[in-house]
């Protein structure tokens, strides 16, 4: 059996000490309690602060557990933060691809659209921000659902004859998404429409949402009805760019 990871043990010890100190503790206090150098403690605290588990008081001298630590079952990333980091990249993807672009995240078993860019052709279109999509029938949903099995829907509703409603087949589809790193949809939610999406990873590699484009099959797929490789590349690059912004600015 492999041994334990020392850095995680130390971080857990820091969290335990902070949980027992409602008024917070300073770097020196934690270092003395754990027998660690101040630089080591400061590095642990900085990381825990970045992931939202600890906060500093106004003076900056003491640390305490954040409210987010008590809500680990909830999404740690605010939807407005995801949207703000995605706006420029999503707009660029829509401009380059000529298709509708959406950014979404899983909320109570549905994909909530937090940002929507219209197809740049001046046609009449409805804004989707705030609406929800079925995760099993859309590329945007599958790109997130593949990494969160706890959110997998129990009742797989059919929207078209191509919708995957067999749990086993859906499991196989999601395994494919994980292995290649992107998801597709072919008339599974709406007839004559297809989509491509890729997961957005936050700190630690946690998938916090997805970005994808959608359009008519003849534009999304090639002559052999395969999702176009150039569009897949664009979507994946956009997801990676958003992820870098999230990690750099968190």
UniProtKB/TrEMBL annotation:
Keyword check for Electron transport: no
GO molecular function: DNA binding; DNA-binding transcription factor activity
Start and end residues of each IclR-ED domain: 68-248
InterPro entries: GAF-like_dom_sf, HTH_MetabolicPath_Reg, Tscrpt_reg_IclR_C, Tscrpt_reg_IclR_N, WH-like_DNA-bd_sf, WH_DNA-bd_sf
Protein keywords: DNA-binding, Glycerol metabolism, Transcription, Transcription regulation
SUPFAM superfamilies xrefs: GAF domain-like, Winged helix' DNA-binding domain
Gene3D superfamilies assigned: 3.30.450.40, Winged helix-like DNA-binding domain superfamily/Winged helix DNA-binding domain
Name the UniProt record assigns to this protein: Glycerol operon regulatory protein
Organism from which the protein derives: Kribbella speibonae
